[in-house]
Design a protein that fits this description.
Elements (H helix, E strand, L loop, with lengths): L13 H6 L3 H9 L5 E7 L2 H23 L4 H24 E7 L3 H9 L5 H5 L6 H12 L6 H10 L2 H13 L12
Antiparallel strand pairs: 1-2
Length: 186
């Protein structure tokens, strides 16, 4: 199993440490953050996905009924049964699914990969900053926490349906833009 990649430690800012006793702890937490990670779940079992959708619908209906009549024992029993059916349907989908994990690259590496795959003339005319056809498999492989190779990624992108290939690419590119910060209210 691949361990999470962390940020590299720059030289401590002595003035900040001297000015704020809490900075050392804050800095340590910042240095130990892992880069964002996202998952792509693939489930080819159409029946299992349909059963899950139905179980979600039935559960929501049972939840609504139980919420409207909190003293109704029959509604509570129906909700318990719907909850159990939902858990069973979710377990079936989970068992049939393949979950791929992707982690954001450090900014320097990501920029270097983009620069190594310049756009074609046509792509540049269309406003692209890089060649998606050549960068795609490289980025999928580089950001994969599951060991997807460039060759595998290229094959998946060639062989899968348009929508599925786009989902794979969007996941690899999307994790690079994953934001976990809140600027708060000023």
């Amino acid at each position: 199993m691949t361990t999470a990649r962390k940020t590299t430690a720059p030289t401590p800012p002595a003035a900040a440490l001297a000015a704020d006793a809490h900075w050392a702890a804050t800095r340590e937490r910042l240095l130990n953050r892992t880069r964002p990670t996202v998952h792509l779940t693939i489930c080819d079992d159409h029946d299992a996905k349909e059963a899950l959708a139905e179980a979600r619908f039935v559960h929501q209906q049972a939840q609504d009924k139980a919420d409207r009549a909190p003293e109704d024992e029959a509604a509570k029993a129906t909700l318990r049964a719907a909850t159990a059916a939902l858990a069973k349907a979710q377990a079936a989908v989970d068992k049939a699914s393949i979950v791929l994990r992707f982690q954001a690259l450090d900014r320097k590496t990501y920029k270097e990969l983009q620069a190594a795959h310049p756009p074609t003339e046509d792509q540049a005319e269309d406003g692209y900053a890089f060649n998606l056809d050549t960068l795609g498999p490289v980025l999928v492989a580089a950001s994969s926490l599951d060991g997807i190779t460039e060759e595998d990624a290229a094959q998946f992108l060639d062989d899968w349906s348009q929508a599925e290939a786009e989902a794979l690419l969007n996941t690899a590119f999307g994790v690079q833009r994953e934001e976990r910060m809140d600027l708060g209210k000023g």
